[in-house]
Write a structure and sequence with these properties.
16 helices, transferase, alpha/beta, 2 domains, 14 strands, Rossmann fold, 15% strand, single chain
Length: 457
């Protein structure tokens, strides 16, 4: 990274407290903040538990932020949610973490701090970003950065297309049909009013750029801490042994769909291929929905719930599965599994945004019979498992280091400031954003369509 970049004061707005190892959005937030804090001053406004007290305190010795302000997470009543769904016209997700106390603390921080950048993490924070200019009145506004963790309207559209296939899921499909249209309108507004939108994959960038072609975007994918996610770090620890494992937040609709499809369609086929041999499947993750907990009624299926450390489960699984049928962004669980040297079977939807190749980094399979055959192949071939695991680990070490990703984000800041502040920049296209060092395949810098583009509206 260039050594002469500007030092910024940045206020982060996050939907939960950043965490190094737990929950995808929290892990992303932690790593972005931790690397940015090496060169910039970071304050954090975030939500705590619903029963927690509102408080402000300095960052601790192991925390990367200068100051953290925590507001209790709001509890939505079913009456409020019903009003939003039927009367407001607003996207449900945009209302999920709406909190007047959070608004009050945001206004206070903006009055007291002279921030260069305010960055909102995820769709729930976009609504707060839209208040910043109004809150400041005549004062100069900071650069507004919207980190859109998924192209949410695309995710809901895919959910509708998946759920409509089964009669019992038609109510969810109807919900998604309405929500994807509202989300598309809300994301378009957020893109148009913010100075920079951060996307986690090229596919998301293409979908979001279509909503506001004139607005600046930069791709900063999810990364992985390859020092933490390494088999050597758990070599001296007991590892739970399972033939197959899946990990993820188990009340998240794409994950519920993935494990349900696998257990109902793939698991019986795989067991039939191995008569007389016991198989064990671990579904690992917090907040398992009732649809997930019921899967323990199937022979060999274990639902662990939340675990303090998922690395022993990666290390103890013979095969890691990623049977996603829809979703968005870059699968952090895939990057973690590859970093742990796991042998992986995934659908193409499961590895969207990561430039993996079939039979080089993992095995790809999109239908139930092919998925069962690929899993059986890995279960029976230790050499193949070792070859894929080594190649996957090498790829994430090379291409998904958080330091490289944050350097690209900092380049996005500088480009967005230039577009906003320079009259000349508004009259000409900006060169494609290049990261330092060279961007990996599949990054923003490798695709002309996802360059930072000029503001001309």
């Amino acid at each position: 990274m260039s050594g002469n970049r500007t030092r910024y004061r940045i206020l982060f707005l996050t939907p939960q407290r950043p965490n190094r190892t737990r929950q995808v959005a929290a892990i992303r937030n932690w790593n972005l903040i931790a690397h940015l804090a090496q060169r910039h001053e970071i304050d954090l406004l975030t939500f705590g538990e619903p029963v927690s007290d509102e408080r402000t305190r300095p960052g601790g010795p192991d925390e990367p932020w200068r100051t953290i302000v925590t507001v209790p997470a709001p509890r939505r009543t079913w009456q409020r949610r019903l009003r939003v769904l039927t009367l407001s016209g607003r996207a449900d997700m945009a209302d999920r973490l709406w909190s007047p106390p959070f608004v009050a603390r945001l206004r206070q921080l903006l009055r007291e701090g002279e921030y260069d950048i305010v960055q909102g993490e995820g769709i729930e924070m976009a609504r707060y970003l839209l208040l910043v200019r109004t809150a400041l009145g005549e004062r100069p506004a900071p650069l507004l950065v919207f980190d859109d963790h998924n192209a949410e309207y695309v995710l809901q559209r895919r959910a509708a297309a998946t759920d409509v296939r089964e009669v019992r899921h038609w109510p969810r499909a109807v919900y998604s049909v309405f929500q994807w249209q509202r989300l598309r309108a809300f994301e378009r507004r957020a893109l148009r009013e913010c100075d920079l939108t951060v996307c986690v994959s090229e596919a998301d960038a293409a979908a979001l750029q279509a909503l506001a072609p004139e607005r600046p975007l930069v791709v900063a994918p999810n990364g992985v801490d390859t020092g933490y996610y390494a088999r050597a770090r758990v070599a001296d620890r007991a590892t739970p042994r399972f033939d197959l494992a899946f990990s993820g937040t188990l009340d998240y609709r794409p994950n519920i769909d993935a494990v349900g499809w696998f257990v109902e369609e793939v698991w019986p086929r795989l067991r039939a291929r191995r008569p007389g041999r016991s198989l064990r499947l671990a579904l690992i993750g917090r907040n398992p929905a009732p649809e997930v907990t019921r899967l323990v009624l199937r022979d060999g299926v274990v639902v662990t719930g939340s675990v303090a450390d998922d690395r022993p489960y990666f290390a103890g699984a013979t095969v890691y599965i990623l049977p996603m049928r829809y979703g968005g962004g870059v699968r952090l669980k895939l990057l973690n599994a590859l970093a742990m040297g796991c042998a992986v079977v995934a659908t193409r939807a499961g590895c969207e945004g990561v430039p993996v190749r079939d039979d080089e980094h993992l095995l790809l399979a999109d239908d139930a019979e092919a998925f069962a055959a690929a899993a059986e192949r890995l279960l029976d071939d230790a050499d193949l498992r070792a070859r894929l695991g080594a190649a996957g680990r090498a790829m994430v070490e090379r291409d998904y280091d958080w330091g490289t990703i944050v350097a690209r984000l900092e380049g996005g800041y500088e480009a967005a400031f230039a577009i906003r502040d320079s009259p000349q920049a508004a009259d000409r296209p900006l060169d494609r954003l290049e990261s330092e060092p060279d961007a990996p395949p599949g990054s923003a810098a490798s695709d002309e369509a996802h360059a930072i583009s000029p503001e001309d509206s």
